Please model this.
Amino acid sequence: MATTIFSTQMLEFRGGRLFHDVDGGREVTVGPEPLVIGRDPACGLVVDESGVSAMHAELTATASGVRLRDLGSKNGTWVGDLRVSEALLTKSTAFWVARTQLRFEVARTQKVELPEIERFGPLYGTSAAMRDVFRRLERAAPTELTVLVQGETGTGKELVAAALHDASKRKGGPFVVVDCGAIAPTLAEATLFGHEKGAFTGATTTRLSPFIEANGGTIFLDELGELPLDVQPKLLRALAERRVKRVGSNTYEDFDARVVAATRRDLEAAVNQGAFRSDLYFRLAQVRTHVPALRQRLDDVPGLIKVILADLGAKDAWRRVSRATLDRLLRYDWPGNVRELRNAVAVALALADDGEQLDIAGAVGLKAAPAKGKPVDVTANRGYHDAKREALHHFERAYFAQLVDATDGNIAEISRRTGLQRTHVRKYLRLHGLRELRGA
Model:
């Protein structure tokens, strides 16, 4: 793991104490690790009262205060008379989960030292957000704890899993990837646990379970949120007992693999909706880490471009990236995250002539900004209808990009928020090259 020394950087957070004033009272500390409140016995603060969801809300200490986030609960999280999906608690206050009151008391600002590195395995970042991810990974890597990696599509969740594997005592073993999002529901059990020849139509050979293939190493369950509900208890049992049984067999096989899972879904909300088992969630989330979106760490963009160019064998091409290009890239919201940046760099490099500047901004459809002191008068440069059409195009893309981001691409939810039919939503997403993920 390459290491670069920086001046010591500290992560500040304003945490506190959370009180549940029943049965003699209970209190828990609120720090930078998410604290889940809910009815499930595995929650950080168990509130087993009427109306409270299995995983109701979450508190996390940040530099600005304590972030209170509702986890898709049925009866809501309330601050005063306001039902909130997310709120920042900056002073001692009371809030409600369903009809149960909790008291939060703010504490003094605390500091956590961030690692003085810019790389963790294949991951890169000098921003505080990424170095905090590195801090969490450094602590988790030497353990056998299961890790749940959360983040948007394109943020590099598989790279996080690979980095954990490479920094663990299992680095000499296999790293096996299972894409749960690509598994047909009817074949999920056979894909996860293996099958005997002839166990079902199409099973022409015996297949080992990827858990067995990962013996001595790490198994990475990508897009775990897509796993069918009926297979989840079988996965939970396999993880608890450290053994699997092939479809069509009566014999269990022990496995010795570290488990890392990832999802772009809001699994906490899925638990409350009955789409994901809470016991499986807590089995997998012994350690949680969230990979920030690229728009949340834009100061990493120049360094990422250097890293990507080096990976493409064109390290010296960094000199062909202009300041104007960087300025445009730093104002972009990057809906496709690091994956989109990597593709843009690769396209710009491939299309540029030798010695020509790399038009990375153009590769993601960003037009050059007008020269300073010369604002563009659209009516003077093109006809009214052309100018209106271009402005509408930019508005539509920004509008639907934000909706896709806010709903994780849920077509049904975008339809509800916009008042448009789902067929029209899909048309706009296709028109603007935005991701259509679920909610058909």
Summary: The two ends are 43 Å apart (CA to CA). The first strand starts at residue 10 and ends at 20.
